[in-house]
Design a protein that fits this description.
Elements lengths: L6 E7 L3 H11 L8 E7 L6 H9 L6 E6 L6 H13 L4 E5 L3 E3 L3 H10 L4 E3 L2 E4 L6 H5 L13 E2 L7 E5 H4 L17 H11 L4 E3 L5 E4 L7 H22 L3 H27 L4 H18 L14
Length: 310
């Protein structure tokens, strides 16, 4: 039970009107015994799509539905605007979900079970829903969605902001730049936030029952998209590790691990010539190596444009 706590569902959206519509329809069916405020912040204010969708759904929506715009480009800005709005409205809890995802009716209750265990932040999986064109290789690739092999309620440091709940009390001291603006054009804003929360003593738990469905569009199945995404992710992780784990020994440790990864990728690529079933794994490891290596020399990999190319 949530004991009537006020939860704000925070959504940053950008050029996904139909995804937003499906998400809001799912939010309307949530089972929660306290007040809900759904806050939509559109990072593409010129289109007006989000306002049109919210206006169309508002008359029959079972709880408060707020739609705002944020003109500064980059996902940290609409997410921060949503947090600011939620705190100003007195929300006790903030739940985050992306505009290409859909929760089940018990989503909030499941996330809250982690808070009830004493956590300040609780997160759950993003389960990919593939289009018919996907093959077994796509389905086995870990860069679609987000999941972790942890038991329910396991203590951990979260990594993805696509599905989590936090208390307003734990977030408020870290504003107004909760999601750091320096990551506006790269990955890493969510990882950075969780690192800061962890450093401040926040307690985090993993709740696999709080899964959401993440729709995977056809264009994400291309090798080019996946390559750029893998490079971007691992480039960002090394850059963030460099910020939080300073000193010559830590840097040497990171470089050594990257060199070892590169050697492994070379060996795996060589074996894959005789055993084609290993070719995909070899590619993934080469791309990981490229992303990490670029970070070591100060080369920033920018956020992958998640839209079909003409």
């Amino acid at each position: 039970m949530s004991h009537g706590k006020h939860v704000a569902v925070c959504i940053a959206t950008f050029k996904r009107p139909e995804g937003l519509r499906r998400l809001l329809e799912a939010i309307a069916a949530l089972d929660w015994d306290g007040p809900i405020t759904t806050i939509v912040v559109d990072n593409d204010p010129a289109s007006g799509d989000s306002f049109s969708i919210c206006q169309a759904l508002a008359p029959g929506f079972p709880s408060d539905l707020v739609c705002k715009t944020e003109s500064q480009p980059g996902i940290p800005f609409p997410r921060n605007a949503a947090i600011e709005e939620a705190i100003s409205r007195g929300a006790d809890l903030l739940a985050f979900i992306d505009d290409d995802e859909r929760p089940s009716p018990d989503w909030l209750r499941c996330l809250y079970s982690g808070i009830a265990l004493g956590a300040d932040v609780a997160g759950g999986p993003q389960i990919p829903v593939f289009p018919p064109s996907a093959n077994d290789q796509h389905r086995a690739t870990p860069y679609y969605g987000h999941d972790r092999p942890l038991a329910s309620g396991a203590i951990c440091q979260l990594q993805s902001s696509g599905n989590f709940m936090a208390t307003a009390a734990v977030l408020e001291p870290h504003g107004p730049g909760w999601f750091a603006p320096r990551y506006a054009q790269t990955s890493g804003a969510d990882h950075d936030l969780f690192r800061r929360l962890d450093r401040a003593g926040a307690r985090m738990r993993w709740i696999p029952e709080a899964a959401v469905a993440e729709d995977i569009p056809d264009h994400r199945l291309s090798e080019n998209w996946l390559r750029d995404r893998v490079i971007e992710i691992h480039n960002g992780r090394v850059r963030i590790d460099s910020e939080y784990q300073t000193g010559a020994l830590k840097r040497l440790e990171r470089v050594t691990k990257t060199v070892a990864l590169g050697l492994y990728a070379v060996v795996l690529s060589t074996i894959a010539k005789a055993k084609p079933s290993l070719a995909h794994e070899a590619r993934l490891n080469r791309w990981k190596f490229i992303g990490k290596s670029r970070a070591h020399v100060g080369w920033i990999s920018h956020r992958v444009e998640d839209r079909p190319t003409p």
